[in-house]
Fold:
Amino acid sequence: MKLALVLALIGGAAQAEELVPKVNAAQVDSCFATALREGMDASCIGAASGICMEQPGGFTTQGMSQCTSAETEVWDGHLNRAYKARMAEITPDQKTALREAQRAWIAFRDADCGLQYQMFIDGTMRSNIYTGCMLEMTARRALALRDLGGM
Structure:
């Protein structure tokens, strides 16, 4: 009896795992490489999470938040790598200024997205509003750091 229960739980967990939509990180990588360069706009931001939402489980409120959060994680990796690259290339005074600017930007992003969440506190889409804000702001900051100083 216990074995049957354990197997049922494992099977249910496997099915639940199959319903978790996935983001194509390579699509985000391509956007990071091309957005705002050579006449390209930044409309590719959010495209990977949009495709993710078309997968099974992706068009629920929770699925949409998962997709958007997953894309944000990929952009956050690009942001962190761009920040480190800029820090390695600039003077000590510029490093101090960039560090202060980045800390201020993080506080602003968190506060601004938190405000958007609060503005929709009674709605079912508040989490999606918040994760969408985090995605857009994180992606745009990653691109700004990539291009900082014309580098």
In short: DSSP finds six helices and no strands in the chain.
